[in-house]
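tool_call: predict_structure(chain=1)
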Amino acid sequence: MSERITRLRMRGGTAAEWEVANPVLLSREFGIETDTRRMKMGDGTTAWSALAYFLAGADVRGQVSRLASYQIPSAAQGVYRSTGATGTLDTAASSGLVLGTTDTMGLRNTSGRAVLLRFYGSIDATAGNNQTLGIKLALNGTAIDATECRAFTGSGNQEAKLVTSWMINVPVSGEVSLLIANHSSSADVTLQRARLVASQVQV
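tool_result:
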């Protein structure tokens, strides 16, 4: 008995070509970006630019960093606030996450669905001699108290090395960022370096 082999070739084009054409894919029709290998699935009504990427088999991930010094204005002792700094998104490694819009040292979920992510955040900072600094992760600007980490600057105004990690269920368009506080005084904090990294938790 002879076999019939059917080969399927999905619609494809570069990311730039898709952006220019901006077609409406049929319901359950797939389109592939040949240069990024990302794809979208149509619903019969939504234009390409408004469709979320289809992420089956691919991690939602992103990382943002800042390596330049930044002065964080003083606040009341022990009060957590945004760093106010602007980070640089590693676009080559990002999938489903972009630079935050409310906090530009954060990551915003653009995957089109809620996703469980493991976040790793770190800040190196100073605030004068013998100051205790702290960091927390925040979801949509609200601190997650369980993520708090504190470190001491020492008598020589050394950099406090602050590190935290937590799994967060991030809703559609949700934004995760880092907050910082000076627990010893209201002195300004000088951020030297900061990083925020997210990777999808497979369940």
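agent: The longest strand covers residues 115-126. Proceeding to next step.
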